[in-house]
Design goal:
The chain is built from 16 helices and four strands. The chain is mainly alpha-helical.
């Protein structure tokens, strides 16, 4: 034990963060295999056999926890749903808007409200799952629940809610003490864990002659093209030149300092599609676990059936909405304009103040429109090709976007961390040199 402590103490801060992140992901994967007490996992797995629709995507995002019906079956999606509700309320409620403007203390309170709401949603979703399991028809003579009743319902709901709370805590620990954004990394880990099984299915189809070599090459080429598009668009940005007042040098020459304000094309990142996908998953979740004979309910849920044109239209609208909404949350043109004015900076040809704010709003709106088209191509086009084009894609565009986006974001954070450490080291060395002189 002392030997391991000595090894860990000799590591750099970045190495400790990377090891902590890897350890947290391992713990998350181990937890996804802990079964829910009183549930026959074989009967539940029968529901997901051959399901490449919305529930299959939900199961992929959870790393197979839902099909195995583990204690982490709900995963982090109650927290994501709660984040959507709180962000929408923040945009419409004056009290929450004022709370967000308080800085760090306000952000902590809003995060606390999000956790409380996530627990409530987890209880509701857990109850829906438990009731659905109890109402499932026996599979090969085996019931999904061995001993249905109040005792099972209470213990299962507590286990599911506890799993969600544990994942929320783990995601926050990764964000604070590791590398990358915790929630995105956990979803990333679930998707990556399911990729080998998807490749195995693709190879098995080719082995039995259901897929030709040309189709396999087409699928691989399409995936590589999507990854290349994501890598390009996630780094794409519109740079706005910022000029600062001229300063007189010692020799009398006037100097003009300039910098650039980078505006990312996809400023919403992966959270916009994740929010849209989480909302589209909810009807499929209800349809699968809460059976209803009401024709009106079935008709409404039919609009959310994976692969239908109504589903793809709704998905497209949600992607566009959350892309603009998340961009508005991330980028505040009024605050940016005020900061530039206070620092004496200005955009060439644009007056400081309100005109700068309107100019920034226009630039962000146009770049976000390009980003929305890109997100729709990445997330919706694979669904069309899979359901209407006969291309057997084992992994959706949203999953590829999350994987590539998380990898790029984590790499950028590592680079920023290294640059910060190098700068801090250079400053310390310079101060030591001055002290010695």
């Amino acid at each position: 034990m002392k030997f391991l402590r000595n090894i860990f103490s000799n590591l750099t801060d970045l190495q400790k963060r990377i090891l902590f992140t890897l350890g947290a992901l391992i713990v998350y994967r181990v937890g996804s295999f802990i079964p829910l007490p009183g549930v026959n996992a074989t009967a539940v797995l029968h529901l997901f056999n051959g399901d490449n629709g919305m529930m299959g995507m939900f199961d992929m995002f959870s790393g197979g926890s839902l099909s195995r019906m583990s204690v982490l079956a709900l995963n982090i999606f109650p927290y994501i749903s709660a984040s959507i509700v709180i962000q929408l309320l923040t945009a419409t409620s004056k009290s929450l808007t004022d709370l967000r403007k308080e800085g760090e203390s306000g952000r902590i309170k809003i995060n606390q409200y999000t956790r409380y709401l996530a627990v409530v949603l987890a209880i509701v979703q857990g109850w829906a799952v438990v009731r659905g399991l109890e109402s499932m028809a026996p599979v090969n003579g085996l019931s999904a629940v061995a001993n249905p009743g109040f005792a099972f319902e209470l213990s299962a709901i507590v286990a599911l809610v506890g799993g969600t709370v544990f994942i929320m805590w783990l995601a926050e620990q990764v964000t604070a003490r590791g590398i990358g954004q915790g929630a995105s990394l956990l979803i990333f880990a679930g998707i990556i864990a399911e990729v080998p099984s998807g490749i195995a299915k693709l190879l098995s189809l080719a082995r039995v002659g259901q897929m030709s070599p040309a189709m396999i090459a087409l699928v691989l080429g399409f995936v590589i093209g999507i990854v290349a598009l994501i890598a390009f668009m996630e780094q794409a940005q519109r740079r706005i030149q910022i000029l600062y007042p001229r300063q007189a040098m010692a020799n009398g020459v006037m100097n003009t300092s300039a910098s650039y304000l980078p505006i990312k094309v996809n400023m919403s990142g992966v959270m916009g599609p994740v929010f849209a996908a989480s909302i589209m998953m909810l009807p499929a979740f209800i349809q699968r676990f809460v059976q209803s004979d009401n024709l009106t309910v079935q008709y409404v849920l039919g609009f959310f059936t994976y692969g239908t044109w109504s589903y793809m239209i709704l998905y497209t609208v949600l992607i566009a909405f959350f892309a603009y909404f998340q961009t508005a949350v991330v980028f505040n043109s009024e605050e940016t304009s005020t900061n530039l004015k206070n620092m004496g900076g200005y955009i060439p040809g644009v007056r400081p103040g309100e005109q700068t704010m309107k100019y920034l709003d226009g630039v962000v709106s146009r770049t976000t429109a390009i980003g929305v088209v890109y997100l729709i191509v990445v997330c919706v086009l694979p669904i069309i090709l899979n359901t209407h084009g006969g291309m057997p894609l084992m992994i959706g565009g949203t999953s590829v976007l999350i994987v590539a986006g998380v990898v790029l974001d984590t790499m950028n954070q590592v680079k920023s961390y290294l640059v910060e450490k190098q700068y801090s080291g250079a400053v310390k060395t310079q101060k030591k040199g001055r002290f010695r002189n």
